[in-house]
Amino acid sequence: MFEKIYGHQSITNHLKKEIARKEVSHAYLFSGIDGIGKKKTAREFAKALLCPESAHHGNGQCAVCAQIDHDNYPDVKIIGPKAGEASIKISQVREMISELSIKPYSGNWRINIIDGAEKMTPEAQNSLLKSLEEPLNYNIFILMTSHPQAILPTIQSRCQSYHFQPLSLKDIEKVIADNPEFDQKAKAEAIMAAGGSPGMALYFLNNSEIQKERTHYLRELYSLLKGDQIKVFTLAETLANDKGTSQEILEFFIHWFYEIDLLLAGYPLPHQEVPNQAHKAYHQLLENEKNQAIIKTLFELMATIQYNVNLRLQWEKCFIKIMKIQKG
Ligand SMILES: [Zn+2]
User: Membrane spanning segments where (predicted)?
Assistant: First the structure.
């Protein structure tokens, strides 16, 4: 067990011992910076406790382990801030608590994971306290946090605490080795910048790839707006290759022209973003009404792209229309 965890060896050794001696705690506090491996360790711990192939203890990819990996095993509950929310609400914690007295669905344990535990409101933390004070036999809590100081001392004192230390460069390299799509130079740079967190290294890698792709499409579209007709067909051809990419780039284009719309109206960009070279180039090239007509055209494409249409043809139509708008 825990073979997939790189680094954090003293923690995984402790957890292994607890499992072997049947001295598993009812509450844990996993602390450490974002992306360092807390959640992965929590999942591996859950697998070690719940995998029915007990001889392997979570090594094999049985159905239970696979479900745990995908966060949809009924005896492993995970809560965190809901999408668009900054905090974990008391209602979420209450819902978790309301199920504590129900027997686990199949194994001997129910693992209740609170991801970003510092984001629980004080009321939410207080409502959790009683469950930690009087635990029910088969319930285990794992609170994960990058800011343990924001957890009430009364909660901390009821948890077995494990602090996850930053990983060595070598260990981060091992974690991201499974991502062959990135070249060595990019990997080395991301590892150096990651501050000991493999999750952060992956974030840097993914975003630089996404960024490169987007910059490419912006450059092509800019040529099109400047009158290069060939781009209508070359762009449509590449974008039609993959429906997912089509959708993603279309959403990005819409977002992009909305930003240009803000600049044209004299407003700052959202999230304190500073206009880059591409923003400036588009800003100079486009006029207010034309920009809005382009946004409208992109939305029309968005409406048709949902259906099973000839993607290439639809993109071509869209680009031809955009060219006409710009020509005026
Ligand atoms: Zn298994």
Answer: none
- Dmax over Cα atoms in the chain, in whole Å? 77
Ligand 1 centroid to Cα of residue 23, in Å, is 21
What is the 104 CA–ligand 1 centroid distance (Å)?
A: 17
The rounded mean pLDDT for the chain is 90
Name the burial class of residue 54, with classes exposed (0-12), middle (13-18) and buried (19+) by CB atoms within 10 angstroms of its CB: exposed
Share of the chain above pLDDT 90, in %: 63
Strands 76-79 and 139-145: unpaired
Q: Which domains does the chain have, with CATH numbers?
A: 9-165 (3.40.50.300), 226-327 (1.20.272)
Q: What is the CA(192)–ligand 1 centre distance, in A?
A: 35
The residues whose Cβ lies within 5 A of ligand 1, an ion, are 51, 53, 62, 64-65
CA 300–ligand 1 middle distance (angstroms): 47
Ligand 1 midpoint to CA 196 (Å): 29
Given a cut of 90, whether residue 214 has pLDDT beyond it is no
DSSP element (H, E) containing 113: strand 110-115
Whether the predicted pLDDT of 61 surpasses 80: no
Strand order across the 160-163 sheet: 76-79, 110-115, 139-145, 27-31, 160-163
Q: Indicate the helix (H) or strand (E) that contains 284.
A: helix 277-285
Do 99 and 92 contact (CB within 8 A), yes or no? no
Q: Name the nearest CA neighbour of 172 among 209, 144, 199.
A: 199
Distance 58 CA to ligand 1 centre (A): 4
What 3-state class would DSSP assign to 145? strand
Give the mean pLDDT of 280-290: 95
Distance 52 CA to ligand 1 centre (A): 6
Residue 281 Cα to ligand 1 middle (Å): 54
Average pLDDT over residues 81-101: 90
